[in-house]
């Protein structure tokens, strides 16, 4: 309980009120004043007058609180008959006086009251040379107009002083100008502002302290001077900032404040070019990361605002990366799918995908959305965007990826009860399973041919990275499927074979599903039992880290979950590597092993070129103008290696020439053997092909992983014609090249 009465009348109480007016908290002052806000406290002054003469920084808030509790805005002191307006103008600095007067004007004071010296508040302002404030007090402005005028007047006044303070290297005065309300974006007659002079030789203090205060008070970090430079450009140009990482820290902070690194000076150099020219590698790295992020954010904004022209311009930028998430963790393709207008949505989706966006990109978890782990297909299916889903499916997306909740796109279609969407996804799944890259060979026919061949190897993948057992599980007819699976297992098919990564156009698709994974995905309980009884490992993970049980759980397949959980036939074991690599990555087997009936080579079985033609996809690569001819396939071979493996010499050499014309690397090395195309052609005794390759000036003495050069291989094989050709090449090209290099080196030497 307060010891003060509601209306204090003794000197001690008034002393407490007086001290609270000078420096106390607002709440305490109001408690002490109580209901008598107009009491005389000291020397004929009321609480309102004492606060006005105090100079305290929170004067505006305190005066406003007193006026709201009943203080008379027109009350005068008993000595000089000053109102609160008179006193504020007399005793406060211009900034506080201006702000206080603006607030008091909202309480409708009488501007014509004169004090004992017969001066109105306007007269006092003129006497103090507060001319900007006097213009507000002449009664011609509304409070709203007065506030706008204040911002401009104070900003201009202290903005000019701020520029002078920076040019005079006076950090203290510069900071005070900012605090007083300077317009930090004011420029002088030379077209430059304080933020520019910070990064000239006129200012010697570390810039971050003043720069931070200026930005807090509204400085535009992208303000350009008369030469087009921003603070970012000028910071990079100021070499004295290099020591102690000052430049890096300034650039980093400017970028965080939103500095645009693409602004160019009069010489056409942006921040990145300036840093690269000066070899500031740390700053270059910082700017490149920021530029990529900025373009990604700009692309997102263009999509959200349906700005087709801006989007097209951004997509043409060489630094545009459509596989970078925005600040919310969404990629451009996700943002496009969020468009409500189906016409613009579908147009943007096509354009983004055609520029190289990853069709299977997953949204990054973020509190601002609930799309964590969703691919574009997830999002489009969940929103029942049938036409957009059809577009996405033409780009061959993964049909059954799981998001962070373990749900597939099909699960969303099922939850929505969208029968047409479910049918579309199922149909595409079947078509994708039947499609064999690159020549669209029907996989079931391929499997039938394989089963009719008693000497075929049932553990060789096709060009899609699928083994025969995978193909069998993809058969739709359950009886035929079971027959295929049992037959392949009886022929020695590896029940734990993983589908291997493969190239689709320029994209590397990761798989890793075992037959048991595929059976679980397709809810094939009977096939799963056959596989488990044949020692299939239920604990193996695919390339996404998923086990067969994970897919059964995602499908809510109780029967499959029970089978995989309770099966006792095997324990988790370490995965064994296949005993033999695929055909395209190994040499033909020794003849003795073939004679024992183990596995004959495709050359002896017949149709080698036809099979290779179906598997290597060279025809499609040659005909695709955008194909990358320097990417290895799943077996570690480049297209040029695969071309050399063709038997027909005319076709082989034509393929090699076509690949070289498309930019193939004549020195590309196979992953598993280290063989260059020259190694491979020499080992196969292909004289014409060796001669063709030598015309492209390959490296002559590169050893493969076995330590053998092409010459050593020819020597071991007693291939005399090829040896003669290689010796001639060494003599006329290699040795001459070395001799010319030695002459150049000698000519470049300087003798001191």
TrEMBL record:
Q: Which ranges does the record mark as transmembrane?
A: none
The answer to whether the entry has keyword Repeat is yes
Gene3D superfamilies in alphabetical order: Ankyrin repeat-containing domain
Keywords, alphabetical:
ANK repeat, Repeat
Q: Write down the superkingdom of origin.
A: Eukaryota
> According to the record, where are the ANK repeats?
43-78, 328-364, 372-404, 405-437, 464-500, 511-543, 635-671, 673-694
Q: Where is this region: Disordered?
A: 567-612
Ranges of Basic and acidic residues compositional bias? Answer: 567-576, 586-612
Record's keyword annotation contains Repeat: yes
Name by which UniProt lists this protein = Tankyrase-1-like isoform X9
Organism of derivation: Crassostrea virginica
Q: What is the lineage of its organism?
A: Eukaryota, Metazoa, Spiralia, Lophotrochozoa, Mollusca
């Amino acid at each position: 309980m307060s010891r003060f009465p509601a209306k204090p009348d003794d000197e001690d109480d008034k002393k407490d009120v007086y001290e609270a007016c000078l420096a106390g908290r607002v709440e305490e002052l109001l408690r002490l004043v109580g209901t008598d806000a107009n009491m005389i406290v000291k020397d004929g002054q009321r609480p309102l007058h004492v606060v006005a003469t105090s100079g305290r920084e929170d004067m505006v808030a305190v005066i406003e609180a007193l006026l709201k509790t009943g203080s008379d805005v027109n009350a005068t002191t008993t000595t000089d008959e000053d109102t609160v307006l008179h006193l504020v103008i007399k005793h406060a600095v211009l900034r506080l006086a201006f702000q206080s007067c603006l607030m008091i004007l909202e309480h409708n004071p009488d501007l014509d009251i004169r004090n004992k010296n017969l001066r109105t508040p306007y007269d006092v302002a003129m006497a103090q040379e507060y001319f900007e404030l006097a213009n507000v007090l002449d009664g011609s402005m509304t409070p709203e107009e007065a506030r706008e005028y204040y911002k401009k007047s104070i900003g201009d006044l202290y903005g000019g002083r701020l520029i002078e303070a920076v040019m005079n290297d006076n950090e203290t005065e510069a900071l005070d100008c900012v605090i007083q309300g300077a317009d930090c974006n004011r420029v002088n007659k030379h077209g430059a502002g304080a933020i520019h002079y910070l990064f000239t030789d006129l200012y010697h203090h570390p810039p971050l302290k003043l720069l931070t205060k200026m930005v807090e008070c509204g400085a535009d970090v992208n303000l350009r001077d008369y030469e087009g430079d921003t603070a970012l450009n000028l910071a990079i140009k100021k070499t004295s900032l290099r020591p102690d990482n000052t430049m890096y820290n300034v650039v980093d902070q400017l970028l965080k404040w939103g500095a645009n690194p693409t602004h160019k000076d009069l010489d056409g150099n942006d921040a990145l070019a300036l840093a690269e020219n000066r070899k500031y590698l740390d700053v270059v790295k910082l700017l490149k990361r920021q530029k990529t992020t900025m373009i990604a954010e700009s692309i997102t904004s263009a999509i959200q605002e349906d700005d087709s022209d801006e989007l097209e311009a951004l997509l043409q930028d060489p630094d545009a990366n459509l596989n970078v998430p925005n600040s919310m963790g969404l990629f451009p393709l996700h943002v496009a799918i969020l468009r409500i207008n189906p016409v613009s949505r579908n147009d943007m989706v096509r354009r983004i995908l055609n520029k190289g966006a990853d069709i299977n990109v997953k949204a990054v978890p973020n509190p601002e959305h609930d799309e964590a782990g969703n691919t574009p297909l997830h999002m489009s299916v969940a929103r029942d965007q049938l036409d957009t889903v059809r577009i996405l499916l033409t780009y061959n997306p993964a049909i059954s990826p799981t998001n962070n909740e373990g749900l597939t796109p099909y699960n969303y279609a099922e939850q929505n009860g969208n029968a047409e969407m479910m049918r579309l996804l199922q149909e595409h799944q079947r078509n994708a399973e039947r499609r064999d890259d690159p020549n669209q060979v029907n996989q079931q026919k391929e499997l039938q041919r394989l089963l009719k061949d008693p000497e075929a190897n049932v553990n060789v993948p096709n060009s899609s990275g699928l083994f025969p057992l995978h193909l069998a599980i993809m058969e739709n007819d359950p009886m035929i499927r079971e027959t295929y699976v049992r037959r392949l297992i009886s022929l020695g098919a590896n029940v734990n074979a993983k589908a291997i990564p493969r190239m689709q156009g320029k994209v590397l698709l990761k798989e890793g599903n075992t037959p048991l994974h595929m059976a679980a995905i397709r809810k094939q309980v009977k096939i799963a039992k056959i596989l488990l009884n044949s020692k299939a490992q239920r604990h193996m993970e695919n390339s996404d880290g998923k086990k067969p049980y994970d897919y059964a759980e995602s499908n809510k397949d109780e029967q499959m979950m029970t089978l995989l959980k309770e099966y006792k036939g095997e324990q988790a074991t370490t995965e064994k590597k296949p005993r033999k690599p695929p055909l395209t990555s190994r040499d033909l087997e020794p003849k003795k092993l073939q004679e024992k009936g183990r596995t004959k080579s495709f050359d002896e079985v017949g149709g080698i070129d036809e099979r290779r033609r179906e598997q290597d996809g060279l025809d499609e690569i040659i005909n695709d103008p955008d194909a990358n001819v320097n990417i290895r396939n799943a077996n570690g071979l480049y297209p040029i290696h695969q071309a050399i493996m063709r038997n027909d010499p005319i076709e082989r050499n034509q393929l090699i020439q076509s690949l070289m014309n498309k930019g193939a690397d004549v020195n590309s090395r196979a992953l598993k053997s280290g063989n260059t195309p020259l190694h491979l052609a020499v080992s196969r005794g292909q004289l014409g092909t060796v001669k063709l390759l030598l015309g492209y000036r390959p490296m002559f003495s590169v050893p493969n992983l076995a330590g053998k050069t092409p010459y050593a291989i020819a020597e071991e094989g007693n291939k005399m014609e090829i040896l003669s050709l290689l010796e001639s090449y060494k003599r006329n090209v290699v040795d001459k090249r070395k001799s010319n290099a030695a002459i150049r080196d000698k000519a470049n030497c300087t003798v001191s």
